[in-house]
Amino acid sequence: MTTADADTTPATDQHRPAQLADESELDEFVAGAETALVEFYTNGCGLCQSMEPVVGNVGRELGIDIGFVNPRDDPPLIERFDVRRVPLLVLFVDGEPVARRDDGFVPGEELAAWIREESENCE
């Protein structure tokens, strides 16, 4: 599955990744999730494609919602989230962005630990 093949509906109980088309869909997606991880990607980005299964697996493992959005499809997202590199991972808790990282490929265990740590800091 490629990032473009992600489900186009909000995540279900199985936490299927959702493909988000624009800022409006992103806002609706994170507003409906207690904890959500969104990957900002661009088409043709090899690192983005390699992160997709990792992000999906970690989402299922932790029971959080996962979304994918291409900020080039909605340029205001670039400025709003200060997208300078992709993949950019943004963690949302209760609809608010609480942490971000854009340091390339992140192994699953490291990503899960980061999400747990950042989520606990919000409690």
From TrEMBL:
One family name in Pfam for this protein: Thioredoxin
Segments forming domain Thioredoxin: 1-120
TM stretches of this protein: none
GO MF annotation: an example: protein-disulfide reductase activity
Biased composition (Low complexity): 1-12
PANTHER family: GEO12009P1
Protein name per Swiss-Prot or TrEMBL: Conjugal transfer protein TraF
UniProt lineage: Archaea, Methanobacteriati, Methanobacteriota, Stenosarchaea group, Halobacteria
